[in-house]
Structure formats: C-alpha cells, structure tokens
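Re-running the complex after MR caught last week's input typo. The corrected sequence lines follow. Everything else is unchanged.
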Amino acid sequence: MLPMNHQRPLLTVTELTTKIRQVLENGFSHVALQGEISNLKRHTSGHIYFTLKDKHAQISAVLWRSRTPFLTFAPGDGMRVVVTGRVTLYEQRGIYQIEVYSLRAVGVGELQLAFERLKRRLHEEGLFDQARKRKLPEYPERIGIITSRDGAALHDILKILNRRLPSLEVIFRPVRVQGEGAAAEIATAIEDLNTFGGIDLLIVGRGGGSIEDLWAYNEERVARAICNSRIPVVSAVGHEIDITIADLVADLRAPTPSAAAEMVVKDRQTLLETVGKYWYHIHETIQSALVGKRETIRHLLSSYSFRKPVDLLRQSSQRIDELERTLATAVTHHHAMANSTAGGLQRRLLALNPELTLKRGYAIVSRNGKLITSSKIPTTKDVLDVRFHDGVVRSTVS
Amino acid sequence: MASKHSVKPLTFEQCLHRLERIVEQLERGDIPLEDSIKFYEEGITLSKQCLEKLSQAEVRLKTLEKDAQGKFRLFVEKPNEND
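Corrected-run output:
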C-alpha cells in the first residue's frame, strides 16, 4: 500500500554491510584504543578473542595467532591495556570488531592488581605454605634448568656451577620466557622434567626485565606446575626486587639465576674436605683401635699367667747359658788335653791299625762282610773272605 | 627394555651418609677388631668413590627435547667457545 516515493536504491544486506565495512575500514584503519579486557578466550586455533570496554561502551577484539609471538605479556581479564589495530566488520554476524596488532598493559598498576588478585587466591589455597614445600637435596648431582636458550640466565648458572661443583650433570629444557604462550611452555617443561625423572632439583627462571617481561612467572599455570612438581623447584626470576608468584610457590626463591646456582650446591672444596674429614676419622679410629689392642696384648703379656712360662723360659735360657758355659769350658779343656797328648794318641792309633798286624802274618776272615772270630762259626761249603795285608782270597770251607 | 640403572651406583649423598655411619660405628668402639677392619676397608672404598665423583672437570650439559610423539631425547650440548 505504501508507495515507494523515496527515490532510494534498494540494497541487499550484503551490499549494505559491504558499504559499512568500507566506511569503517577506511575511517579506522589505524587506531590506538584504551580499555579494560574482559571475557578473554584463547581459542584452540591460537587466536585470542576478548572484549575491550570502559564505563559506557564495549568493542569486540581479536588477536590473530600470527600476532601472539609479539606479545610481551599474557593478557588477562581485568587488565587495562592500550591496543593498536584496525576496525573491521565481521560480515556473517554483522558485528564490528577491532583487529589487534599490538597490546600493552597500561602502567604497572594494572598488572600489579592482577598479580595481587592471583596472589591472594593462591595464598588462601595454601600454595605458599611453608609446610607444603619440599626439602632441597643437600647433594644434588643432576639439576634441571628451565629457561630460554638465548638469555643470560643459562650462561650465568653454568658459570657458577662450573666454578663451584663441576661434577654436576645439567638437564636443560629451553622454553620461551616471555610473551604469549611462555607460561604454558614453562609449565609443560616442569611437568616434562618430572616425567623424565632422575633429576634432583629444578631451577626455573630468567634474567631480569620489566614486570611485563616477567609476567609468565605470575601466571597461575606456572604456579600450579611448580606446586605439583615432585622435584623441588628453585625459582630464579630477574633481579632481586622482582617477586613473582612463581617465587612464592617455589620451594626456594633465589633472587637471580646466578644466586640460584650458588644456593643449590656446596662447592667442591667443602665436599672434598668433608670426605677427607671422614676418611681421616676412620683412619684415626682404626689406628687408635690397633694401638689399643697392642697395649692390651702388652698388658696381657706382663700379667702373671703369661709371665709364668716366660719366667720358665728365662730360667731355661739361664740354664742354657750355664750349660753353654760349661760346655765351652769342657771343650777347651779337652782340646788342650788332646793337644798335649797328641803324640801318644797317634801312636796308640797306629798300634790299633790292623794293617800292621796283617803285615805281621795275621789274616782277617769274614763271611758276607761279617768277621768270623771263631772256628765254630763257619759250616761246610761256606764261602769265606780271607784278607791278608796285600789282598783278599775267597775260599770255601771243606 | 633393560634399564641401565639396574645396578644403581650409590649417589654422592648415599656414599657420604654411609661414610658418616661408619665413622659413628668405629667411634663407638664396641665392635670386634675384625669388624672394624671391614668398616675401615669399606670406608676407604667409599671415600675413593666420593672423590671420584667430585673429580669431573666440567658440568655435563644436556638438552632435553620432546618429539611430536612425546618421546624424550637428550642432546649433549657443545661447550660454548666464549665461556
């Protein structure tokens, strides 16, 4: 019924949307926008969706995955940020949104608030309780280090460890330590080193930086991973003034990576002295035990029961001495005597020599080497040896 | 797969604690001389083991990586030339 008296072109939804899109994209191709993040969602595709709002208005925002590596901190709900980007129109749903190129926190205050909120929550949950914390091993031999490959932290830690206790083994797990995704990598690395096993303690950290740089260590995921780790964790984040959530949850907080290395191992000299001390102790105790036993033996030897045989021995020995003296005297005497009667003796010996007797016409009769001193001994057919002074004659008894 | 840790050598800490215990035993002094000698010999062996463990000249650095299948691999890091 209503006449089409307005001379306006009829547009399709698509046509209108396209026109609006052109206006928007040309008019707001580069904006810097301040607002508070809410309703932030990390999609599995890697894109991040959120709403930027202030008191009276809000706008949808999207950060494509390709931009996330450039983030210096992980954005979260409630943070006040300045984003740069361009306004676009999402045609299918007819909504406009801002495509974010960069994102930074507005002042320290906002991050500080987020920090305080998480801190209060985890504190109430008991994650910072000393009673929950694990005891650090006194003599670790295998240390896990979770930090970036490029930062100074790894180098600093290794330098100190090499100086203090070069007998260590270090298992290094490189991670990104800042920007979007850093917290997830750190948390995963902690879990992985636990799974891998055989590691005595973990050093988790990085060199100093701005609060945004250190933000990964203020994230709940990292806090939970540290809390759930079976391996004791030493946090070593930044310079001394920065305290992160990770520091509060860790079993020990080192102010810097170098300090962590100093704190976790005793230096070699101390250990050598300890071993040396024990060795010396063992040696001394054994030595004195042996001296003690020797004393005991000496004491026993001087006791009566041992002394008796000794006395006997002494008496015997004395007797031997006497005998020896006597013998010596006797021998000497005899010798002297023998000497003085040498001539007479020789003569007597010569007289006893049977040769001479034989020469005088006697003979010695023997049977099988045995002397026959009687005529009654031999029987008929006996073979007898008859020895003269100059030979033997074998003869048979008839 | 056979574990290469099937015969686990004592850790430095275990070595040191055993040494400590031996010292205590010997100091009590109420053990037979023959046992003391055994403790002594064990103590010397343990001391040597401890010293051997401490003798390594440089930290062994290995990098742990995880492949797509979730399997771990250790890489020995080349020492940095500017260290």
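None of the earlier attempt is carried over here. Chain A has a mean pLDDT of 84. Chain A touches chain B through 41 residues (CB under 8 Å).
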